[in-house]
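Pilot study result, target chain (179 residues):
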Amino acid sequence: MVTLDWIMGQLHERAFGLFLLVLALPCCIPFLYGVPQIVALPLMFVSGQMLLGRSTPWLPRKLGARQVATASLEGLAERAGPWLRRIEAVSRPRLAALTRRPFDQLVGIALVVFSASILVPLPGTNTVPGIAVVILSMGLLQRDGILVILGAVLGTAWIGTLLVAGATLASLIKAWLGL
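Predicted structure:
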């Protein structure tokens, strides 16, 4: 048995990437409602810690002391292995400065905004920002600035799309009501 605090201690600053990845995965499932909105709050909490410049994520004492069976970790590693090997095949440390201070704080801002957009309870609004967060988190884990950029571009394009769609809808409603 190991604790979450021990796992975070082994990962150091890469713990942000792991937490973000685990939290964002349910958000990638299209037309899943409720779970992404619930997961978005801890996602914002972890992202906010990056924004504030923490070097590792902080967990409440009870959560950090929570034990995880090593057999469970081995099973997770075995199931995730094929996916991780595919990602590792294209990902490698490059533009690593984007994964460290002060740039990681800018990434934190983007992650907070993307997480907030997951909270929007409209059909399909969680999938694209969830994928953006997954790509960003893999970039943080692998110290791959290219993945960080790709995730940031995808998430920013999504936010822009939401803003344009919202403004268009508001204009149409105003015109329909004759305001």
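One observation from the pilot: The helical segments are 4-11, 15-24, 35-51, 61-64, 70-90, 103-118, 127-142, 145-177. A full batch analysis is planned for the follow-on phase.
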